[in-house]
Amino acid sequence: MSVRTPAPAREAGERPPRGPAPRRRPGPRSRRWQGPAAAASFLLLLVGGWHVMALALDSVLVPGVDRIGAEVLRLLGDPRFYADLGVTFQRVALGFALAFVVAVCVGIAMGRSPLARRFFEPAVLIGLTVPGLVWALLCVIWFGVALINPVMAVALSSAPALTLSIYQGTRATDAHLLEMAHVYRFSFRDRLRHLWLPSLAPALFGGARLGLSLAWKVIVLVEIFGMSSGVGAAINGEFASQNVAGVLAWTVLFAFVMALLEYGLLQGLENRAGRWRKVSAV
Amino acid sequence: MSTAVELRGVGKSFTSVRDRRTEDVFSDFSLTVEPGELVALVGASGTGKTTLLHMVAGLERPDTGHVSGVGPGGDHGRLGVVFQQPRLLDWLPVRANVEIALRSAGLDPGAADAALAQVGLSEYADKYPSVLSGGQRQRVAVARAFAVDPSVVLLDEPFSALDELTGRRLRLLLQDLWTRQRRVGLLVTHSPAEAVFLADRVLVLAGRPAKVVREYHVSLPRPRSPEDPALFDLHRRVVADLL
Predict the structure, then answer these.
(1) Beta bridge pairs of residue B201
(2) What percent of chain B has pLDDT over 70?
(3) What residue ranges define each of the domains in chain B, with the CATH number in brackets?
(4) Residues of A in contact with B58 (CB under 8 A)
């Protein structure tokens, strides 16, 4: 659900505003590094600011960057870290796969049939408004420590956003192509694979981003409340032993790995799905 | 080939969304296209030409009457359609676009290359449609329509979005493909010149509900030349009907 700001429209015949001419425009090489440099400087400021704050407060509740760094290194050397991370990732993957399948079916049905839209609309709205914390609690109550608990919690919290996104993508699908597929009698499989999924790709990726970000949040809650393994349980352990640096180190690492997955994996897939588009831009 | 397209006593009305008035686009409309015949429908915008084509294609249902065409659920044979826009799957290479239609028709997808060769696009088979020009994309659409070995070919203003010269080349190509194997053809067009050049019979539609107000038989042998004075004479008469 990203909002794009439209470029300000320029009246016909109006000339571009003439500011003072830049003395030297940055070359393509330096321009390429501008973006990463800006991001890096934000992170540096954050880390530096945190450390200054820690020094000023001088409290065990706000550990300095050095102690957090030491915890991060300790975790990276600990095989249990990878085991916990793997368990959490597996739960998210299963739950998200379930949500994905349901969302594709329901989303397309909603886009195609007004009756289905009316039927599922309340479910999607309720699903969107129920906080992830409530799903986490309910799933712990209902399913206990079984694998289905985190999987359901992830599915329930990410499916509504995904469904909504796919529904909107379905409405944007070219009706002309559907007519074409109809007159040439495409099979259901061909329709799904070569018409629906490619036209829905932007909506799918947008929905997947949103759904995954919700999934990360709810999985940690579920693991804190009801599981004895996974990232959430580990954070809970650090919390119980009053190790603030440990909690922060886990958070930093978890966020880093998830961001890596999201940008690395999703971006890669999206680029692959959009190959044909790139060609046309040349 | 025993297939013909037949519309018998067809009625179709639309309810305008704005003022909820119902208008009859067709009322007791009948038309038969004989096997091997290419019939062109000309008429002003909004006379219902495309609606008629959609009914034959099975994309719309008549309110009353009967349409025997080949639309899905229809009885005889396959359908090849060239729309005003190419309507290709932009994310598939050109060859795959033709292959998928062949596969859906229960034919050997390997015939795609031959179909593309017929329209002179062999070297573009591996390209994505987005790198092709408008005329080339429409050629792919023509190749797809004829590749499925259709018993009925529907042409919905197939070349109206192209520039004059590209359109003329494609009309010649279509004539060529048509002469190789004659099927049942229905062409909807704005262009009287296109209609008289391609068709065996030109029907002028007008009014609401739409009626055939004039019928011309074009008995010139194929291949025809777009410069043929006889065609031009006929063209003038059709234009006079439309004005």
Answers:
(1) B39, B217
(2) 95
(3) 5-77+152-242 (3.40.50.300), 89-150 (no CATH)
(4) 182-183
